[in-house]
Amino acid sequence: MSLTRLPGVYRPQHDTWLLTDALADAGIRPGASVLDVGCGTGALSIAAARTGPRSVTAVDVSRRAVWVARVNTALRGVRAEVTRGDAFEQVAGRTFDLILANPPYVPGKCGTPRGRHRAWDAGEDGREMLDRLCVNAPLLLAPAGTLLMVHSGLCDEERTLHLLRGGGLKAQVVVRADVPFGPVMHRRRRELVELGLIEPGQHSEELVVIRGDQPTAA
Hints:
The chain is an alpha/beta fold. It has a single domain, classed as 3-Layer(aba) Sandwich (Rossmann fold), CATH 3.40.50.150. Helix content is 32%, strand content 25%. It has eight helices and seven strands, in the order H-E-H-E-H-E-H-E-H-E-H-E-H-H-E. The protein has a seven-stranded mixed beta sheet. The chain is globular.
């Protein structure tokens, strides 16, 4: 998929395509309302359009990402509401049939992320955004709704499953894949070794796609 992208906007990589493949296999019915959390270039919104959704809402904190996502969806004839801000604040009080999320999950001693680093920096354990997503997703899913999210196996997939199940979702890992480190992970290898998250000489990580399903209304 060729997409317009400005400097500072997250470039779709292995995690993006792993999630789009999981979406294609998820059996999402036409007519769903879709939320794309942290939309970046809009790649996931475009992929979701192939399911025949009723609506697509995409949110990102980056002004550049919002502009790029608007351009990319418009060029492909995808009708999407693309807004800037905190995803959970922007859609508070609404529910969705499908939530897609490729959140920041790269661990590191990074402090408060700024600029382009907001697309990947996620605290020492990589869970700064993941934990928020796990808490909010059950509140945002409509009955029988589905969450599909991707993150590194370095970020404790069991905690993700525990939090989602604690929120009432049926949660499971649906895809696993070993992929080589991207540029950010390569630059951060020494730090990740010091944090005890990877072994010296490690050059790859496992990515997981986790699915959470909201029970059907009684």
